[in-house]
Amino acid sequence: MPGQLDTAPTRTSGWVVFAGTIVAVTAVANLIYGIVLLVNDEWVVLAPRSVVTFDLTTVGVAYLLVAALQLFIAMGVFHGDLWARVLGIVVAALNLLAQLSFMSVYPQWSWVVIILDGLIIYALAVHGDEVAEL
After folding, report:
1. Taking the chain (134 residues) in consecutive chunks of 10 residues, what is each chunk's mean pLDDT?
2. What is the C-alpha separation between 75 and 84, in angstroms, rounded?
3. Which residues, at least 6 apart from 26, have a Cβ–Cβ distance to it below 8 Å?
4. Which of 4, 17, 95, 132 is the most buried (most CB within 10 A)?
5. Can you tell me the distance from the alpha carbon of 122 to that of 36, in angstroms, rounded to the nearest whole number?
6. Residues 19, 119 contacting (CB under 8 angstroms)
7. Distance CA 72, CA 84 (A)
8. What pLDDT score does 38 carry?
């Protein structure tokens, strides 16, 4: 009708909200894990034939940096930014590969993270453009 504003309906995908939430939760978990590795790296028990050969303090710093990046990605995903979706897919894929090195240390946790990273990649790749800009 004349005189009315032409507003297109907006839609928000539950998958994108799921991905953004899981990225944010993962960021907090990585933040906690990074702090633990910095403060008390004896807390992490390594198996005798572990694949992990890094200094755990260095791994702790890496976790803190990844956590900060993931928080920015989560905010960008909720805002609907393309850069956040692309970077979210890349970081989730790298995190998925990194979990393979911790498989001998905490196999159950590694499988949970691998599955969540796979769901994040799916949600951002397939449903990423469905988020409405705020």
Report:
1. 52 79 89 85 61 71 92 91 92 88 78 89 84 53
2. 8
3. 70, 95, 113, 116
4. 95
5. 30
6. yes
7. 8
8. 86
Q: What is the per-residue pLDDT for 94?
A: 92
**Is the distance from CB of 16 to CB of 124 less than 8 angstroms?**
yes
Alpha helices by DSSP H, 1-134: 14-39, 56-79, 82-101, 107-127
pLDDT of residue 49: 62
CA angle 75, 77, 79 (to 5 degrees): 70
Give whole-number Cα distances, 76 to 28, 31, 83, 117, in Å. Answer: 16, 19, 8, 17
Q: How many CB atoms lie within 10 A of CB 111?
A: 12
Instruction: Tell me the two tokens of residue 16.
Output: 């994108």
57: tokens are: 């303090």
Residue 13 is which amino acid?
S
- Whose tokens are 């807390």? That residue is 43
The residue type at 96: L
